[in-house]
Every structure is written in structure tokens, then in C-alpha cells.
TrEMBL record:
Name used for this protein in its record: tRNA (Adenosine(37)-N6)-dimethylallyltransferase MiaA
Entries under Gene3D superfamilies matching the protein: P-loop containing nucleotide triphosphate hydrolases
PANTHER family: TRNA DIMETHYLALLYLTRANSFERASE
InterPro entries, alphabetized: Dimethylallyltransferase (IPR039657), P-loop_NTPase (IPR027417)
Keywords for this protein: ATP-binding, Nucleotide-binding, Transferase
Assigned protein family: Belongs to the IPP transferase family.
Length: 155
């Protein structure tokens, strides 16, 4: 941070604007995954259920006891919904539903950002859209696509 401030003060430009001049230092292959919404929702739901099962509520209780409710970190997805539950503003079921909704919204915003600002990325065709429901077939299909891109990039 100190170095970034020094550069900004000396150049009169933001630190983030410094590297925009000239050619990139490296030739980079960017590969992206974009699952269909139904698959994303399924994965988010399973992940949140696992987080609840493995102690998210107790973790939040301990953190709130140690630091209080007003920490900025508690504005993060999952924490704020569990805190609403702990404060008895909503039920656990409502909390989990909100966690799912907010996580999916966040993932959609991330995808929008990646597609807008990362036009050089190669987006793999998701095998789930090809009706390959078994995970091993999905992974094999994605792996073939990725290896093909890497081979072409390195040749």
C-alpha cells in the first residue's frame, strides 16, 4: 500500500492506471467455466447445506460473541443471514433461502463482470448443457476442452 501511494504521488496517476501502458508482460491463456443456472443453483444449495451442517452457525456465534454484531466483515454473504437468524429476525429456513438467493445473485454479477472485462477468456462449453448429468462425464468433457485449448496455446 505504501509503495502504491508513493507511485501515485510521484506520477499523479492512480496506481491501477500505471500498468495500462504498453504490452502485457506475459502471454496468458484464460479459461472460464460458466455452468447453466440450474447446475449453479444445485451446487450453491449443496454448499450452503454443508456449511450449516459443519458448523457455520456456531462459528458465527463465536465470532459475534468475540467481536460484536457491528463488524463490517459480518456484511458478507452467509454471515449477515446467519446473524439475522441468531437475532431472531428470521427463521433458519428463511436464512438459508436468503443465503442461496444472495450467493446466486453474486455469482451472476461475477459472470457479468468476467464477460465484460475479460473478453480474451475462452469460455468452455458446459457439458451440463449437453445433458451429461454424471459428474465424471462432465469433468472429462471439460478436461478435453481445456487440454485442447492449452495444446493450441502452447503450439
Amino acid at each position: 500500500v505504501i509503495r502504491a501511494l508513493e507511485i501515485a504521488l510521484l506520477s499523479g496517476k492512480k496506481f491501477s492506471e500505471q500498468r495500462k501502458v504498453g504490452e502485457p508482460l506475459y502471454n496468458v491463456l484464460e479459461i472460464g467455466l460458466n455452468p447453466p443456472l440450474e447446475i449453479l443453483k444445485e451446487k450453491v444449495t449443496k454448499r450452503i447445506a454443508l456449511m450449516i451442517k459443519t458448523g457455520l452457525i456456531n462459528e458465527v456465534k463465536r465470532l459475534v460473541k468475540k467481536y460484536g454484531y457491528k463488524q463490517r466483515a459480518f456484511d458478507a454473504i452467509d454471515y449477515r443471514e446467519i446473524i439475522d437468524y441468531l437475532r431472531k429476525n428470521i427463521s433458519l429456513k428463511e436464512s438459508i433461502m436468503q443465503m442461496n438467493t444472495n450467493t446466486i445473485r453474486y455469482a451472476k454479477r461475477q459472470m457479468t463482470w468476467f464477460k465484460k472485462y475479460n473478453s480474451s477468456a475462452h469460455w468452455l462449453k458446459n457439458p451440463a448443457s449437453l445433458k451429461l448429468r454424471r459428474a465424471s462425464k462432465n469433468e472429462a468433457c471439460l478436461r478435453r476442452q481445456a487440454f485442447g485449448l492449452v495444446k493450441k496455446f502452447l503450439d
